[in-house]
Specification:
about 15% strand
Length: about 260
């Protein structure tokens, strides 16, 4: 129970990695406020959390819209009785797949940066005043292994994840004096429906089979195994806990050795 009675906001909390992260933080003792764009999946996860004996509340909204984020953070603060101890930015998008940079539609590139970068910046901006006031906070941004290296035919996605690194490091410098940690988790390919779609689209564009694309990813990993959502959630729980009290401004990679 490393997070007993801590109060956590998780964006993108309903499905995939976000849902697993939410359940894991609650399993470590945190009360959670879940947000995403669709209500029904949020309610399902919240019901599971309450069955675990932890408090949970939900709110829908778009993390790229400042008014939505202001409302979400205010609702979370009220639900938690004035505290916000943890923020996990798990909302994100994939963007163009298997598309060279000269073929990317500018609007798609901009939309992806807005989702993955602005969608992390705004929750940080509006959560920090509370964390600064209480002189405590843990911010964990979900980046990606493509923010550690170049990623052929994924310029938009890679650019957005490199930007998350810069946001993470600079935030850590800005808020360290207030006893606030800010780190990024950098997953590689994660066993989720998003990975399935990625492999499917790559296979279609290359004229390969799904299995060939999947095997190519695995062959690039030192451990030759795909990361699971639980692998990511375990790292998030560590960075959200006081076990990581002197770690900040870092990118912690969990990818089976893909970016090595």
């Amino acid at each position: 129970m490393r997070l007993e009675n801590r109060k956590a906001i998780i964006t993108g909390a309903a499905q995939g990695m976000g849902g697993t992260i939410t359940r894991t933080l609650a399993g470590e003792g945190a009360d959670v406020f879940l947000t995403a764009r669709t209500l029904e999946p949020l309610q399902k996860v919240a019901a599971e959390i309450r069955a675990m004996g932890r408090k949970a509340e939900v709110a829908t909204g778009d993390v790229t819209k400042e008014k939505d984020v202001e409302s979400i953070v205010a609702a979370a603060k009220s639900f938690f009785g004035g505290r916000i101890d943890i923020l996990v930015n798990a909302a994100g998008a994939t963007g163009p797949i298997e598309t060279p940079v000269w073929e990317i539609v500018a609007e798609d590139f901009e939309a992806l940066l807005r989702k993955n970068v602005v969608g992390s910046f705004l929750p940080i901006k509006h959560t920090l005043p509370t964390m600064i006031q209480q002189r405590y906070g843990k911010i964990v941004n979900i980046g990606g292994g493509s923010g550690m290296r170049g990623y052929r035919n994924r310029a938009g996605y890679s650019s957005s994840k490199w930007a998350v690194r810069g946001l993470t490091r600079t935030t850590a410098l800005d808020v360290g004096e207030f006893n606030i940690n800010c780190n990024a988790v950098m997953p590689g390919i994660v066993e989720t429906p998003r990975m399935e779609n990625l492999c499917r689209v790559k296979a279609e564009k290359r004229g390969w089979t799904y299995e060939q694309v999947y095997a190519e990813y695995v062959s690039e990993m030192a451990l030759a195994r795909v990361t699971t959502p639980q692998d990511v959630a375990n790292l998030v729980a560590f960075l959200a806990s006081d076990d990581s009290r002197n770690i900040t401004g870092q990118e912690v990679v969990v990818d089976g050795g893909w970016a090595v």
